[in-house]
Design brief:
Elements (H helix, E strand, L loop, with lengths): L2 H11 L12 H7 L9 H22 L1 H10 L18 E2 L9 H11 L16 H10 L2 E6 L7 E6 H19 L8 E7 L7 H5 L3 H4 L2 E6 L5 H8 L4 H31 L4 E5 L1 H14 L9 E6 L3 E3 L2 E2 L2 H12 L6 E5 L8 E3 L6 E2 L5 E6 L11 E8 L8 E11 L11 E2 L4 E2 L8 H9 L3 H5 L1
Parallel strand pairs: 1-15, 4-5, 4-6, 6-7, 7-10
Antiparallel strand pairs: 2-3, 8-9, 10-11, 11-12, 12-16, 13-14, 14-15, 15-16, 15-17
C-alpha cells in the first residue's frame, strides 16, 4: 500500500477528529490540510502559519479579556501584525502563569478567565472543591481540562474545549504516522507506558485515547485512576504513613508492570503481530534492564516500533542519553534505530515535534507552529543559537497559545540529515537552570518506579 493510500485509511479512521471542511478557519487549514505536517514546502508553510497565528491572535485579543488587557499593556494590537516578520511582536505569556492558580471555587473562575470564548454551563459543587473536583465539573460539561508537570508541587492547568483537544490528538497521531511510515498500521498491537486514558486528566494519559483508534489492541501500564492527589504522593519523598505506603505499593506495581510488558512482547512475537511501545522511556529502560539481568533478548526487527515522549530521567539523578537508549533498544529488543523515535510536546500547545528516523532531530509542524528561541533578555536569537523556547500556536483556540517555556533548546533552519523542509530542534531538550524536571514521563517515572536493581535482588 502506498503512502497516499495509508494516509487515506488514517483519514477515514480519524474522521471524528476532523471538523467539516465548510467550518474550517485558517487554523484548521494549517493543521488538517497538509497530508504530511513535516513535508509542507517552506513558502506554503509560511503563508499558512501567518494566517493561522493571525487568526488566533485576533480571536484571543477580541474574546479573551485577560489577554486583551495584557496586549494593551504591551501596546500591541492585531492591526500591527501585517506579515510574517511581525509575528515576533505577539505578546507572550510565561508558562509559569498556568501554574499560579487558586484553590477551591476560585480555581473554576481562574479557568473561566483563561478560556477564550463562551463556556458551557458548569456547576461546581461543595464549599471548597479540590482541583480534581473542579476539573471533573468542567469535563462533565463537555470540556477537556488537563494538567501536567507537577514535579515542583504545582501543576500546569490548561482548559481546552473538545474541538481543540481532538485537534491536538489528531496532530500528534498524524505526525507519528507520517514519521513511522510504512512501519505503522491500524492492525498493530500497542502497549501504552502511561496512565489509562479513560481514568485520568493527566495530559499525556488523556491524549492516549487516540491510540485506541489507530492501533488494534492496546494494553496500558498504569491501569488505575490517576488524579492530582496520586501524583502529589508519587512526587513526595515518602514521608508519613500514607507516603511510605504509596512508595511500597508503587515498587511492587513497577516490578509487575515490567514483567507484564515482557510477557506481552513474548506473546505478540509468538503470534507474529506488529507491536508498538508508546510512552515513558523509563519503562522501556526498565524492561531492558530486566532483560540484561536475565540474559535475554528479542529480535522484533521491523515488526516493532518504540515511540517515547515526556522526559529522559531514568533514576533520580540519571538522564539517559537518547543514542545510548536506541542502542539498547536495538540490542535487547531487536528494533532498529529508525523505528525508535521521540516525541516532544507540551501541555500548553497543540503542536507536536517528532524525530525523523534518519537523524532523530525534532521536526516542527511549521504550517501552524511559529517557534522562537529567546536569550536571557527574552529577545529572539538566530538559528543555531541556544536559548529558551517560545512559540505561537496557530491551532490553539481555547486560550492564548503564545507561550514562553522553561525549556532550553537549539533550533536549526532545517534538518542536517533528512530532506524534510522546515526548522528542527536538536535532540536533548533540557530545562532552564533552576527549573524542575518537566514532563508527564517524569510523573509516570515517579509514580511506578523504584530502584529496579534493588527490587530484583
Amino acid at each position: 500500500m502506498g503512502y497516499a493510500e495509508d494516509l487515506s485509511r488514517f483519514e477515514d479512521l480519524a474522521s471524528r477528529y476532523i471538523p467539516r471542511r465548510e467550518d474550517w478557519t485558517p487554523s484548521e487549514e494549517a493543521v488538517f490540510g497538509p497530508p504530511d505536517p513535516y513535508r509542507v514546502p517552506k513558502d506554503e508553510a509560511d503563508r499558512m502559519r501567518y494566517r493561522a497565528v493571525k487568526h488566533q491572535f485576533e480571536r484571543h485579543y477580541r474574546l479573551n479579556r485577560m489577554y486583551h488587557d495584557f496586549c494593551r499593556e504591551a501596546k500591541v494590537s492585531p492591526e500591527e501584525i501585517r506579515g510574517l516578520d511581525d509575528l515576533d511582536k505577539v505578546p507572550l505569556i510565561p508558562s509559569e502563569f498556568f501554574k499560579d492558580c487558586p484553590p477551591g471555587k476560585d480555581f473554576a473562575l481562574w479557568l473561566g478567565n483563561v478560556y477564550t470564548g463562551e463556556l458551557p454551563r458548569i456547576k461546581v459543587g461543595g464549599r471548597s472543591p479540590s482541583h480534581d473536583q473542579v476539573i471533573d465539573s468542567f469535563n462533565s460539561a463537555g470540556m477537556a481540562v488537563c494538567y501536567s508537570s507537577g514535579t515542583g508541587g504545582r501543576h500546569t492547568f490548561m482548559p481546552r474545549d473538545m474541538r481543540c483537544f481532538l485537534t491536538n490528538e489528531y496532530a500528534m497521531a498524524k505526525g507519528v504516522i507520517s514519521m513511522f511510515f510504512p512501519h505503522w498500521n491500524p492492525q498493530m498491537r500497542g502497549y501504552l507506558l502511561l496512565p489509562h486514558p479513560f481514568k485520568t486528566n493527566l495530559f499525556a494519559g488523556r491524549l492516549g485515547t487516540i491510540f485506541f483508534d489507530i492501533m488494534r489492541d492496546v494494553n496500558v501500564a498504569v491501569d488505575r485512576k490517576v488524579d492530582t492527589e496520586l501524583i502529589r504522593l508519587s512526587m513526595s519523598e515518602g514521608h508519613g504513613l500514607k507516603g511510605r505506603a504509596f512508595k511500597y505499593i508503587a515498587k511492587r506495581k513497577s516490578e509487575r508492570t515490567v514483567q507484564d510488558i515482557i510477557t506481552w512482547i513474548e506473546r505478540n512475537q509468538r503470534e507474529g503481530h506488529e507491536m508498538a511501545l508508546v510512552g515513558a522511556p523509563f519503562l522501556v529502560h526498565s524492561v531492558i534492564e530486566r532483560l540484561k539481568q536475565e540474559g535475554r533478548t528479542f529480535d522484533l526487527g521491523e515488526r516493532g516500533c518504540v515511540l517515547t515522549g515526556g522526559g529522559w530521567k531514568v533514576h533520580e539523578s540519571k538522564r539517559m542519553p537518547e543514542a545510548e537508549f536506541r542502542r539498547d533498544v536495538e540490542e535487547f529488543l531487536g528494533i532498529p534505530p529508525d523505528q525508535c523515535i521521540d516525541l516532544y510536546g507540551m501541555v500548553e500547545a497543540n503542536g507536536w515535534m517528532t524525530q525523523c528516523p534518519e537523524g532523530h532531530h525534532l521536526h516542527i509542524p511549521h504550517s501552524y507552529m511559529h517557534t522562537m528561541v529567546l536569550d536571557d533578555e527574552y529577545r529572539p536569537v538566530g538559528y543555531g543559537e541556544t536559548g529558551r523556547l517560545a512559540f505561537l500556536d496557530g491551532s490553539m483556540g481555547s486560550y492564548p497559545g503564545f507561550i514562553i517555556t522553561s525549556d532550553r533548546v537549539r533550533m536549526l533552519e532545517r534538518c542536517p540529515v533528512c530532506d524534510r523542509p522546515g526548522p528542527v530542534l536538536e535532540p536533548g531538550v533540557t530545562r532552564v537552570a533552576g527549573k524542575e524536571s518537566r514532563g508527564c514521563a517524569e510523573e509516570v517515572r515517579r509514580m511506578v518506579s523504584s530502584d529496579m536493581r534493588r527490587g530484583a535482588r
